[in-house]
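ERR on first pass: missing label on line 2. Operator R.T. fixed the label and resubmitted. Corrected input:
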Amino acid sequence: MTRGLIVHRIAPGSSVQDMGRSGYRAFGVSRGGAADRLALAEGAALLGQSTDCAALELPGSGGVFEATAPLRIALTGAPMRASLDGAPLVWNASHAVPANARIEIGGATAGSYGYLHVGGGFDVPLRLGSRAAHLAAGIGAVVQAGEVLPVGEDTRSETGLCLPPDTRFDGGTLRMVESFQTGLFNEPTRAQFAETVFTRDARANRMGLRLESGVDGFAPEGGLNILSESILPGDIQVTGDGTPYLLLGESQTTGGYPRIGTVIPADLPRAVQTPAWGRLRFRFVSRDEALQAQTRMQEYLRNLTRSRQPLVRDPSQIRDLLGYQLISGVTAGDAPGTKE
Amino acid sequence: MNDLTSRSFEPVIRPAGLDGVLVSFGDALSEPANRAALAFSASVARAGIDGVEECAPSLVSVFVQFDPVHLGYDRLAARLTALLQDRDWYAAPMPEGRRFIRVPTVYGTDIAPQLGEAAEAAGLSVEQAIAQLSEARVRVQTIGFAPGQPYLGLLPEAWDIPRQTALTKSVPEGALVVAIRQFVLFSVSSPTGWRHVGQTALKLFRPDSDTPFFLRPGDEVQFVQVSPDVMSRHADDPDGGAVIEAIR
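pass 2 clean. output:
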């Protein structure tokens, strides 16, 4: 059988994603790609492959999968309970998966989007230069139970590596810079925005998320008659009733509702990983501060491969633990556990 | 169109987020500003500036995405300023190969339920509204929002109506919506703040075709009124019964 991953069960809204498409904005197609681009880069680093490799994006929970051939996998993004033929799998790590083994991925314990990467990447067709499903544009589609996702050739073999866990999965403060429409909002409205604690509404998708607060509207005067203008990921758009929406990679390319500011690229992974009802605040920062954050993020991405560490086995997760002679405090050299 | 004011408008370069720049040729829609945006965007793309990732025109502006660490906002702004001085962008010609396209459209009925509401906002009877909208020959000013989706204008002044305060949850593919003297023709099913006044059978985006995008900036379009019966005959035609002729 060809290299592939059989999908027995999968969370609604799951899709194959890569870094998205560049060059089609003039035709109305936004970049799209993985909601959490950092998670995509982490998976590529764990498997020692290019960030161009496509992975499976799992919103909220995972599914049940079966390898048709020996595969390497990595699990990144929102931590989820995962197991391989019943044995627990460490998140944010790479693992070897034998042919016919079953991978089960449960619900997220924090955050929103988990990622299942395979060595060689998912080899779905390129469309407009990318393998990413763009659900809003109708390019590609969500992955459904019964599909077999083709896996590309894998030229590497290392597994059992992990990356330190991150803290971007519980909301928090997002830094934003002023944008070209910030001036449409008066000073009291901007100050109020920066002081408000928002909750991420359950209504959220790859296009954007709705920000809920008890505050009575952030709309500017005359905001319904401005000319439609380019949108970029991170823009916070305020609709006519004063509700802010944070726009993400798969948003529309232009829009007519005014934007109060733009979340900096370094904080977008935290923004998209905020779980439903998670709390968010916004802080306007200077361009200099935003630029420093961008430089640090680029350094972090460059150093990802070097940050990998060998996975240390947690004794509580070793299945044949009873095979160890724990009582005497000495483990026999031929204990079954050492073969694992 | 208010051409006089736009001619005195100096192009403005402003940041758009951390990694974007917006070059604007007007603060209101005008034909010269729209021409300038289309021509300048093509020119930025041709210039191949190192660190520029993508550029695209909107109605009267050009959006440039760049790597702010590698290139730097000030250096990019200087390059764009030099390009702006190359020529009178407001007098730039329209893109070549333009076409005039007549698209069969059902106005009102239960498939375009906001015609009455939009007519009232424009201060017109429903009959007057249909006459004005179906006789207007509008131009594709930019493609944006969704794949292959045009903004078209300008409509007569009565149609300077605002967007709705709340979003319509969803309009279908092929929906013709109106606000601020413009049409948008939807290429995908989408939420919108514009009012749904007509429905076409046109497929604007064909992702598996060699020519995935049906309309191009500069094309001219008329949304000709037909009955629901006539339109249903075009249901299987991706062109939705549109009649296309070259503009010479």
